[in-house]
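Appendix B. Chain record.
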Amino acid sequence: MLERLDYVKLAPRLIVDAGSGPAREAQALRQRYPGARLLAVDHALPMLREARPSGLGARVSRLLGRAGVQPLCADLQALPLAAGCAQLLWSNMALHWMREPRAALAEFHRVLAPGGLLMFSTLGPDTLKELRAAFASVDGYAHVNSFVDMHDLGDQLGAAGFTAPVMDAETITLTYADVAGLMRDLRGSGQANCLAGRVRTLYGPRRWARMCETLAGFVREGRLPATAEVVYGHAWREAPRQSADGRAIVNCDTLARLFPEQSAIARPAWTIPVRSSRSGVRPKDSTCSSSATARFLLRDWPWPTP
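Structure tokens predicted for this chain:
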């Protein structure tokens, strides 16, 4: 995922690592963007304690206000952050822990500033398909977490207000010597069954033996496969096109590129919310507010006339 940032031109001031765990990737993001503040957000406090550096150097950095990665224990579906505060929201392998990621995506959109980037990865529905099929042959309970399809995630990004979503996936197959090795790996990585419809009683030895017998049918060349469908996505928070009272917002940086002969470098930047009419845009209906990007000489703009 980090390599994908090579193709993105971004200079974030604040990066939010949502679902950071012990913040190992947050450190890598800090190295890539040394001038940015970085928040490592996770709901598991023990994980965040590992992320907080200790020692004299770390204490001095905090006293001087130069703390590299700041841990924050919070729910990703209700982030205690101001709207529009971040320029990059990074979330690696966190969304699949939620039964429905819509609320988290809406929060990500709220926290991102206009022009900000969301980049994430999660697991797709083919993940652990062998184990899911083996358990399904024994009983009707849900033993493996369900995962949202890549195309549905793309739709949810659009519903949350993101633009230009890009989704892709890859399939990774891990192999194990036996079922016990697979289960140890799942428990060691924290991949527990968190579904409401999971079995609430002990799994008896007979049912376990039947499950293992079905799972043995997937063995190839003496190794038990475990599929992981890894879904990657990124999308942008677009700048608003309308003001609160419904007027269209015209970015003069775009206008200056379209009409370079009308631009003036010495002039301040402007963003113009304008009212439109059938005959075009009238200067008397226009109001201007300062912006930090576009430079355009308003009095030279060829306003359309009826």
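Further analysis of this model is presented in Appendix C.
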